From TrEMBL:
The keyword Phosphoprotein applies. This is Response regulator. Gene3D superfamilies: 3.40.50.2300. Residues 4-119 form the Response regulatory domain. The modification 4-aspartylphosphate is found at D52. Keywords: Phosphoprotein. It comes from Gracilimonas sediminicola.
Amino acid sequence: MNYKVLVIDDDEPIHFMIKNLLKNEFTVLNAHNVQEAIDILSEKDVNLILSDIHMPGISGLEFLESIRLDEKKKKIPVLIMTNLPTIEKEQKAYDLGAADFIKKELLNNDRERVLEIIRMKIVTDIRITGLDEDQSKKKDRLVMKLMETAISGSFSDTVETLGNGLNEIISNKFTGFWMVQNDQSKLLYLGSKNSIKPDNVTDISGQKSFELLKETKEAYMTNHVFNDEKGFFVDFSKKEDLPAEITVPLFAISERELLMNNMNVPADAPMFGVLLMKRSVLFSSTEFELVSRLIKQSGSILYRLYKKANS
């Protein structure tokens, strides 16, 4: 897939800097005012918008307010660029649906951070038909919180943000995240209501479904874990009345690698983690699609942070 980034700015040097920064990974489209941007959006599919906040005519914030009322374009992530951010402007932009702020000084001082923000935003731009409005809003809040935490660079905090956010979206009764190294697993996150947890929860590497994940490299959903060939902690699930399970493997691949491979995990990428969710309410296919895609794609962020923390 050819990912397109639309840059809206009346300052020509900004276009030059961003094109040089992004040209090896993305197609960059240029608009020098909001009307030019609207004309481009009417003709081309765009994955991300980078918009200046101060422009003649319609400002970046006014453009953001208008695009959020356009049914066909309101889901495009918008990153607001500015030289002089203020708390008031940032809050107004977030209230209008901005994905984040980028300080223009970073285009000179920390180009890799700008690239990371753009990659993260495209990787986490997951659009699922059939979500109710409440789930969609919770998903958007989780994506924003995930980016905020990831930008700080903490691997463990980002794992916790992902787990807590998933619990809020789909109301799991049990959620666990395990790191996987050399066919061994280590529990890093445990979120469970009423502090319920299975025996031997720290290690899942001996269970049959662990071998299945290594072999298939595919997420799965079951709504009857008791008699299914798939499922972790079956005895625990029976005891706690938890027939529904979603399990998603995460792989050793960064956001850049995932984007360059059209959001597909390469066949030779090793499994790097497992995220497991259980509840009594049966999972819908829409929930499975949301969870599996969100974890697979945000897993690339976790892997980059993990590598950075252990380099």
